[in-house]
Amino acid sequence: LGPFQLLKKLGAGGMGVVYLAKDSQEDRVVALKVVRPEQVYFEPARERFRREIDAISRFDHRGIAAVYSCGESKGVPYYAQEYVEGASLEAVLRALEDREAARLSGRDMSRALQKVLGSSGPVDDGPGSFFAGSWSDVCARIAAAAADALQHAHSRGVLHRDVKPSNLLLTLEGRVVLIDFGLAALDD
């Protein structure tokens, strides 16, 4: 698709499909979002996609994946953004659903994230790390990081309108990234 080689499908929503892709011009791996094939010819879907691009291109924040480029190839609109190697908070919580929350710790969160990502490398969950401490400590850090990203969006005139565990990515380094601005409202 244009300068991008699609490597694998990462996910899909009501309006778009996200692929892991190789950007041949910049020699980097990106998350490439395209309008769903069945939506390409419907102007409201294309307008919503343009609004999403307008929203996320306003940001410069660690908690929101950066947009690199946008365009259209063979009638298919797309945008390329930073690929965040992480898992959704929803998937991590699902990996722990058989456990009693009162007995969980930050270490349990990091281990569940590792399991979801299929990673066996070391995770820093020692003192001072993102995953250190109790379950409540880590949940509070996640909520604070998400709130910080939302505040950045709000300060740029964007209301996300779809904050949920599936739209928050966690990385092994303890980064929380807000994704999917498809339902965002702009102040203008």
What topology emerges from the helices and strands here?
Layout: E1 4-12, E2 16-23, E3 28-35, H1 43-56, E4 67-73, E5 76-82, E6 87-88, H2 89-95, H3 106-117, H4 135-155, E7 158-159, E8 168-170, E9 176-178, E10 185-186
Antiparallel strand pairs: 1-2, 2-3, 3-5, 4-5, 6-8, 7-10, 8-9
Helix pairs in contact: 2-3, 3-4
Task: Explain the overall architecture.
This protein is globular. It has 188 residues and is of the alpha+beta class. Strand 4 and strand 5 form a beta hairpin. Strands 1-2-3-5-4 form a five-stranded antiparallel β-sheet. Helix 2 packs across helix 3 and helix 3 packs across helix 4. The longest helix is centred in the last third of the chain and has 21 residues. The protein has four helices and ten strands. 29% of the residues lie in helices and 27% in strands.
Strand content: 25-35%
Q: Gyration radius, to the nearest Å?
A: 17 Å
Task: Give the overall form.
Answer: globular
The sequence of SSEs as H and E is EEEHEEEHHHEEEE
Major sheet strand order: 1-2-3-5-4
Poorly predicted runs of 5 or more residues:
none
